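Task: complex structure prediction.
Instruction: return structure tokens for all chains below.
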Amino acid sequence: ETGVTQTPRHLVMGMTNKKSLKCEQHLGHNAMYWYKQSAKKPLELMFVYNFKEQTENNSVPSRFSPECPNSSHLFLHLHTLQPEDSALYLCASSPGGTGGALATQYFGPGTRLLVL
Amino acid sequence: AQKVTQAQTEISVVEKEDVTLDCVYETRDTTYYLFWYKQPPSGELVFLIRRNSFDEQNEISGRYSWNFQKSTSSFNFTITASQVVDSAVYFCALSEGRADYKLSFGAGTTVTVRA
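Output:
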């Protein structure tokens, strides 16, 4: 079974739509992450949740709104996006805490988002 | 400033050739971790290896090997006897100090192995 799953795998939305991306981890981890991967750019960390508390918001526009109801689920709510937001959105999880193994992140397959 | 540099954008080899991917990092912390991830066309980043800054031993896992040299701030990755299934984008990443949950990724190297 895949450790980290993401739905949907592909999403096309208009700039006025509201949609949500879902991530679920089956690894018993306590930290979850959202990344954005655009063409020709390094992966960008967007949000970090540690034990359900948001610990990092990397200057992400408010049209992206994360939600972490429990340690196993992470959502990214999307509202009035721009075409430049089109990218692969990756979710990851890690055991939580600091130090080597606890900080190692495991990724889901991503949601490929196209904003028209 | 870029903390992780992968100078090679693309590498193309014929099956069974060896390929080495370069990774140079920059940090002021004495405690840090280095990672390699593989991203096949399906999109998922697959964790390959983690190395901490106090362990400079090279590592071999099957056809994969890693050469960590603190003196040159490099953590290079070699695929021996490459196969078509090795075709992917490979990312080197760094996490530092007390914020070691934050990964700084390099830009990635696209490896294409031709049959």
